[in-house]
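queue> pop job 88
queue> type: inverse folding (structure -> sequence)
queue> payload:
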């Protein structure tokens, strides 16, 4: 009896729906027949053998199911193997292709690396500062609490974000149910002594009870936080220190809790050390925190706004409810306290967005700019791939003619693009580490959350996603175009085709897009440059050149009264003024451009009394007689202060020109003012009018300002300034020595030339302008390279045409004109489209511009001319090459 014919094996069969079941049944049937024949050879009848064989197999349906499952798994394995093998072949082939075209590969990889490196670096900064969640428990529940002065007729930097009085803070803390916990804070940056390492200024804050634990959700790692008793006005001096300060100042002493440290010459007991992972809010300092010791039952302080506050909501979804409840509370308090709370309310903002409100506009603009650079880079590489694809027409035609499907061709070409992206992206990620460090170094001083910026796993995932996305972005369109190759037409052309009209249109469209996007960036950069130039030319009101400033804080315990304070600052100024190369010295409670100082109310003698609660405000500064001369701040009228304006003399005052203009009709000399105390007025005679000074930043308008003699209102906190004919850095050591000679326990802070303070005030503008300008130049370079490549390639594909034209009598000028008209036509289209785009997009720069319109015609015109000139330069070399075509050689080769 003949053997049954074995079914075709699985790996030889085509795949199809239901095929596995059919093959499984054939496989089982074959094995049953095999057993049947063997039993028949052993002596059984055919019927007995068939019955015994089926018995041995048991449940045939179950066996078929098992075989079907095994076959399905085998097919899947084979498919995966085929895919892996195919991918391996595609990658190997792509590497060989790149090796055969090293110039193309290097240009493409460099472009991708530059674009991805820049994008990743900027995103790492945006992510660390703006996007990454705050490092606290349930950070979405945290809010910043401000007083709202928007209804008041006063000049303030931001009337929606003013400081709070203690009583208004307590009312909000206790009477807004949607706020679970709230804490206020004030400045506390004392000098620490007694540690054996000399006096040092430390960074911290005085915080109300609950700030660390209830609001920020952080328990000390060692010791404890503050108690109720320690937060009272008569509570003991205690301090909680940071982990970094504990390690730096105390060598990580594990027995530090309950030890005593001198802060401002007063003993403070260390009661806790915060965890190493604790990141305090920027305005809370980094070294230590003490209780804000105020008597919560006392009254009469509702009008003194000197606190800021942070709150924690009952849950993240309660923000709008909390704002509504705070508005209702503000309205009630305005009725209850019509003088102190007149036109004052509350404002709540999510803490994360409030922290970065000053940086957000610039960072989003920079991220958008670098995305433009990335897109321009992708367009550049896509153009290279399109041009290169036309040189591979014959190769692709042969592959299609031999049976390769269009999907297979697309797969191969996309693999090549992704390989370029992966290589370029890997180099770009390496560049991102360097670029991120550079951006951190360039970032303006005081940028919040800068310590959380870095290239970590989150950023690497972003870079990987950008890499693969860009590979697909610049690879798919050229691959799809190449896959439409007509094999018959390409083979008939013998591979000599220079590319179809469709390919030419695609290349032209891409280069027009490049020029348009580059022009948008150039316009944005041009506007910021003009804005920065305007800022640089602003009249500050003083002369910063040659002036060195230093911050001095006297310990309250050892300098409790005016006599002791004058006994320090008067000899200090005399010593400093006698140093070689020093011309003069003076002091003031707060320097120009640094913003903060006391907000005081005032009354003009003889003028109608303002409505209670709506008294005009003024920024008051205490100065010594040498201050105006040292700062080069001129008096416009009257006289300055001298040694006779002491505590026993008549009270005098100097006003700025803004206050004189607004309240004295330009004639303030001899008039009198009372500051802060309407019930027991102390009238001060105006003896001089000083020039307006930029106190709140270069952009801010001048506001009402008063100067009083330091001898009549001495404080422990002053800035001393020194005018020198030497390099400012050369006398800093001598200045420190003179301070130490008077008191070794005084730690100086912020010792720096005034020119640095001026530069710092414009640091954000300089940072944004520099980066956007750099990205714009990169975009311009890429656009010019793209245009050069397209023009060069077009000339190379039209060699025969050029040769014929020259043979028929065309001169070099005509050939150059032909090429330049075409290339400049592309540039013109790109410039027009880019100008339209810039007209809409540059309006996003409004918050960053100073005294220049976002649609400034001069900037648009200048940038368009620059782009046109760059396009002309990019086109000249190919145009000159076209004139050197040898018509005889061209016609012979044809």
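queue> result:
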């Amino acid at each position: 009896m003949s053997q049954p014919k074995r079914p075709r094996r699985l790996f030889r069969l085509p795949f199809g729906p239901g095929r596995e079941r059919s093959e499984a049944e054939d496989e089982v049937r074959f094995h049953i027949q095999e057993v049947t024949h063997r039993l028949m050879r052993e002596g059984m009848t055919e019927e007995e053998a068939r019955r015994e064989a089926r018995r041995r197999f048991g449940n045939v349906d179950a066996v078929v199911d098992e075989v079907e499952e095994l076959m399905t798994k085998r097919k899947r394995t084979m498919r995966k193997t085929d895919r892996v093998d195919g991918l391996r072949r595609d990658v190997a082939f792509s590497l060989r292709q790149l090796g055969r075209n090293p110039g193309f590969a290097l240009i493409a990889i460099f472009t991708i690396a530059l674009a991805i490196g820049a994008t990743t670096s900027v995103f790492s900064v945006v992510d660390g500062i703006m996007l990454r969640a705050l490092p606290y428990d349930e950070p979405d529940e945290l809010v910043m609490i401000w007083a709202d002065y928007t209804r008041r007729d006063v000049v303030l930097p931001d009337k929606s974000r003013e400081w709070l009085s203690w009583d208004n803070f307590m009312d909000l803390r206790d009477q807004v149910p949607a706020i679970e916990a709230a804490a206020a804070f004030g400045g506390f940056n004392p000098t620490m002594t007694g540690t054996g390492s000399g006096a040092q200024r430390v960074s911290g804050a005085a915080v109300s009870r609950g700030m660390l634990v209830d609001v920020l959700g952080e328990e000390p790692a060692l010791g404890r936080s503050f108690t109720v008793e320690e937060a009272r006005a008569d509570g003991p001096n205690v301090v909680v220190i940071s982990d970094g300060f504990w390690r730096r100042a105390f060598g990580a002493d594990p027995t530090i809790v309950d030890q005593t440290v001198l802060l401002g010459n007063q003993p403070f007991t260390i009661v806790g050390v915060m965890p190493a992972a604790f990141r305090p809010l920027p305005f809370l300092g980094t070294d230590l925190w003490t209780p804000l010791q105020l008597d919560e039952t006392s009254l009469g302080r509702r009008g003194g706004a000197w606190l800021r506050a942070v709150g924690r909501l009952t849950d993240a979804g309660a923000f709008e409810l909390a704002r509504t409840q705070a508005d209702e509370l503000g309205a009630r308090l305005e009725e209850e306290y019509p003088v102190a709370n007149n036109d004052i309310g509350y404002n709540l903002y999510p803490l994360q967005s409030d922290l970065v409100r000053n940086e957000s506009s610039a960072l989003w603009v920079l991220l958008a700019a670098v995305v433009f650079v990335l897109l321009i880079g992708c367009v550049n590489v896509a153009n290279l791939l399109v041009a290169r694809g036309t040189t591979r027409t014959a190769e692709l035609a042969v592959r299609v003619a031999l049976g390769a499907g269009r999907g297979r061709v697309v797969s191969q070409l996309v693999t090549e693009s992704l390989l370029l992206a992966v290589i370029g992206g890997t180099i770009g990620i390496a560049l991102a580490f360097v670029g991120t460090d550079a951006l951190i170094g360039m970032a303006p001083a005081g940028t919040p959350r800068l310590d959380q910026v870095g290239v970590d796993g989150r950023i690497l995932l972003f870079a990987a996603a950008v890499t693969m996305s860009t590979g697909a972005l610049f690879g798919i369109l050229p691959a799809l175009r190449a896959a439409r190759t007509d094999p018959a037409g390409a083979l008939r052309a013998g591979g000599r085709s220079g590319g179809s009209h469709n390919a030419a249109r695609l290349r032209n469209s891409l280069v027009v897009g490049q020029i348009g996007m580059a022009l948008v960036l150039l316009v944005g950069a041009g506007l910021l440059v003009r804005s920065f130039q305007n800022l640089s030319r602003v009249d500050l009101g003083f002369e910063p050149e040659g002036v060195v400033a230093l911050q001095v804080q006297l310990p309250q315990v050892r300098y409790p009264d005016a006599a002791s304070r004058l006994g320090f600052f008067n000899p200090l100024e005399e010593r400093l003024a006698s140093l070689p190369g020093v011309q003069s010295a003076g002091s003031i409670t707060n320097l120009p451009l640094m913003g903060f100082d006391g907000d005081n109310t005032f009354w003009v003698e003889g003028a109608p009394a303002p409505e209670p609660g709506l008294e005009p405000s003024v920024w008051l500064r205490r100065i010594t007689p040498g201050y105006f001369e040292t700062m080069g701040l001129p008096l416009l009228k009257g006289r300055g202060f001298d040694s006779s304006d002491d505590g026993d003399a008549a009270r005098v005052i100097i006003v700025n020109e803004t206050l004189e203009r607004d309240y004295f009709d330009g004639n303030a000399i001899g008039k009198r003012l009372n500051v802060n105390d309407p019930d027991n007025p102390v009238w001060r005679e105006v003896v001089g009018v000083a020039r307006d000074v930029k106190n709140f930043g270069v952009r801010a308008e001048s506001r009402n300002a008063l100067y009083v003699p330091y001898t009549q209102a001495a404080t422990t906190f002053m800035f001393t300034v020194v005018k020198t004919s030497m390099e400012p850095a050369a006398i800093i050591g001598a200045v420190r020595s003179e301070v130490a000679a008077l008191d070794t326990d005084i730690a100086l802070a912020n010792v720096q030339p005034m020119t640095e303070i001026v530069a710092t005030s414009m640091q954000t503008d300089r940072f944004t302008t520099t980066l956007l300008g750099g990205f714009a130049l990169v975009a311009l370079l890429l656009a010019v390279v793209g245009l050069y490549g397209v023009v060069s390639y077009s000339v190379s594909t039209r060699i025969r045409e050029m040769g014929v034209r020259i043979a028929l009598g065309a001169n070099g000028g005509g050939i150059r004109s032909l090429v330049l008209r075409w290339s400049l036509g592309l540039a013109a289209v790109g410039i027009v489209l880019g100008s339209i785009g810039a007209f809409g997009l540059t309006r996003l720069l409004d918050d960053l511009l100073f005294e220049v319109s976002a649609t400034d015609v001069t900037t648009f015109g200048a940038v368009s001319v620059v782009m046109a000139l760059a396009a002309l330069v990019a086109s000249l070399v190919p145009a000159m090459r076209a004139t050197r075509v040898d018509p005889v050689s061209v016609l012979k080769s044809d």
